[in-house]
Amino acid sequence: MLSSANNAVLLKTRCARSRNFFLGLFLLATISFVAKPLHAAEAPSLDDAIRQLAERIAAIPNLKGPIQLEAHDDAAFDESEGHTWKTTLRRQLDLRKLSITEEPDAPLLRVGATETPTQIVLAAELLFADHQELCIVALKRALLPSEALLASSVRIEKQLVFDSPERVLDAASATRSTADDLVVLTYRNSQLTALRLDPTGSLKQAFTLSAVGFKPSRDPRAELTATETDAQLQFPGKLCEFTWAAPAEVKCRAIAKTLWRPLPSLASPCDSLTWKLQADGSDWTAGDLLQVVPEAASHQGIAALLSDFPGPILNINRAQNSRSALVVVRNLRTGNYEVYKLTLACGN
Length: 348
Known about the structure:
Strands 3, 4, 5, 6, 7, 8, 21, 22 and 23 form a nine-stranded mixed sheet that branches. The protein has a four-stranded antiparallel sheet with strand order 9-10-11-12, with no helix packed on it. Strand 21 (313-318) and strand 22 (324-330) form a beta hairpin. Helix 2 runs parallel beside helix 3. By secondary structure, the chain is mainly beta. The protein starts with a strand and ends with a strand. 10% of the residues lie in helices and 41% in strands. The protein has helices at 22-25, 46-58, 79-95; strands at 2-3, 9-10, 68-73, 108-115, 119-127, 131-140, 149-150, 154-164, 167-175, 180-188, 191-197, 203-208, 223-226, 230-235, 238-243, 251-254, 265-267, 274-279, 289-294, 305-308, 313-318, 324-330, 337-346.
């Protein structure tokens, strides 16, 4: 399980397709006790939190025209408070020229509110046709000595960059002059294949790696590292290297101990913070939740950034860009393997 900065425990649940957002929001509950109901007198600056969230939503790039709105809260919010914060949210969105519509083609904005033992968390997920935007504002509960909004200027941009029925073991980026090639390692019928695609998604190279001698396995594992000129593959007990100019001339050697890479950390483009990625990945029958939290102990009060996926996370590899990572996922609905590019970006 994942631990938040405030020692809240994120519980993994399965949700219907129309409520996937709450895999990333309403999991912010604790095992040890049920949070007390929230009343307006206990959180006089809740309106400020809603205003900040509306500002962040309005600042999302390329957000134009009316939006669909789904607003929900968990059981910790009583009926009157729930009605009040949703009304305030609609008013704040309207002030920022974001009108609400029932048109099915409009972008869908899902907003939810929940409580942890120390915070009130407001989270918004905006679904575009090709990517997802997440915004989160956390408000300290009145039980703490000082009550202030804890919000990061960092947000997550998530984009699907590869989708295939073939099993994907890992993905990496190879730097070019201005953009990254995507390198994907696939596995089928005991055969490894490396695919190199340009930034537009067009295939540049495809070749098998039979010389590696990768043996069949029920749970195959490999890690890929790529540059503009060559690539490196690590398997249990073996390390292989080849160049893009002559991929058939792969060279392998045995290694005494396999050191799998740790989950990466990403540099914030907005300030000096470094954010670490956390994922469970132990349940292959449910969607996974990726949590991005500040690495510095002095900033642990800042709300984590959350991103949910349509299946288990199989591998995470930092891209050549220090602000981005590549996430390999098995989509439980389609059965396909998907690669997402996750990027930290600025914006309130």
